Amino acid sequence: MTHAPTPPVLPASTHVGAVHLNARDLPGLTRFYTDLLGLNVLWPDPTQAVLSAHGTPLLHLHAAPDLPAPAPSRPGLYHTAFLLPTRADLGRWLAHAARLGHRIGSGDHLVSEAFYLSDPEGNGIEVYADRPRDTWTWRSGQVQMATNAVDAAGVLQAAGIDPATLDGAQPFSAPAGTTVGHIHLKVGSAAQAAHWYTGTLGLDVVADLGSAAFLSWGGYHHHIGLNEWHSAAQPAPTTPAAGLRAFTLLSPDLEPLRAHLRGRPDVQHSPDSLTLTDPWGNHLTVTQG
């Protein structure tokens, strides 16, 4: 499928902000993410915890002890992807996660090296580092990605850690510059979702796999991933569940988007944000910042 360029309704520097999760066990999930990623807890109270890296909020955990676990086929979160600044940072994190005893999957995507696991409530997690942009390959507006074996030994060695013994590993704290690099969603139709996100938010489809699509602003490999691997033909859920509650996008200028969406009844406007819901019930807020 050939994808025409989309209207520039958001600046190229628009990116993913914090992800909000409904947590059945708020204290347990808070401990898990602080231990796994070395995040700091801001404004803890019995109903929520905001987890940050050097003051940048990355996760908002909301207490929802009475909600059911989401079914695997339910549209929602596939994974939250935490982007570390360097390959050495990724190596330090990998040694830390291995010492914690986590079972970890991996994928060399050509544009990045990534590791995968799930939290105790089944929310997917990716921790990754990008390769330099000048090494990415583009053909006809599509970035070339793959899922190859990661050179885990090389990632550890980049951090000065012995792959055989993990000598040199230290307790991990999220470095300055850690962000949510992208969010990957489960939807009922990847093609229909790509059409909605490009038409609504002006993203470009930079990789189209049929059952999955990857979209971005400004030539990134992807800010939003969409797949139907477990959720094909599923409609928006009609009742709440644990898992994804909402996610945030940050943009320096909302006025082009306001003009683009003016008159749409599904958009809520406030002075510094716009809130809307995609066709599969995923709530998002675009915030000026």
Detailed description of the structure:
With 289 residues, the chain is of the alpha+beta class. The protein has a single domain (15-288), classed as Roll (2,3-Dihydroxybiphenyl 1,2-Dioxygenase, domain 1). It has 5 helices and 18 strands. A hairpin with a 2-residue loop joins β16 and β17 (273-277). The radius of gyration is 19 Å and the shape is globular. The protein starts with 14 loop residues before the first strand and ends with a strand. The model has no long low-confidence stretch (mean pLDDT 96).
SSE layout:
Blueprint: E1 15-23, H1 26-37, E2 40-45, E3 48-53, E4 56-63, E5 76-83, H2 87-100, E6 105-108, E7 112-118, E8 124-130, E9 138-139, E10 142-143, H3 152-158, E11 179-186, H4 190-201, E12 204-208, E13 212-216, E14 224-227, E15 243-251, H5 255-261, E16 268-270, E17 273-277, E18 283-288
Parallel strand pairs: 1-4, 5-8, 11-14, 15-18
Antiparallel strand pairs: 1-15, 2-3, 3-4, 5-11, 6-7, 7-8, 9-10, 12-13, 13-14, 16-17, 17-18
Helix pairs in contact: 2-3
Shape field: globular
CATH homologous superfamily grouping: 2,3-Dihydroxybiphenyl 1,2-Dioxygenase, domain 1
Estimate the mean pLDDT confidence: 96
Q: How is the CATH topology named?
A: 2,3-Dihydroxybiphenyl 1,2-Dioxygenase, domain 1
CATH architecture heading: Roll
Order of helices and strands: EHEEEEHEEEEEHEHEEEEHEEE
CATH class: Alpha Beta
Summing up helix and strand content along with how strands pair, one would put the structural category as alpha+beta
H/I helix tally: 5
Taking all Cα atoms into account, the compactness measure Rg is 19 Å
How many domains? The number is: 1
| Unreliable stretches | none
Main beta sheet strand tally, sense and closure: 8 strands, mixed
What is the helix fraction of residues, given as a range? 10-25%
Strand content: 35-45%
Give the neighbour order of strands across the main sheet. Answer: 2-3-4-1-15-18-17-16
Protein name: Glyoxalase
Domain VOC: 15-130, 179-289
Pfam families: Glyoxalase
Region (Disordered): 263-289
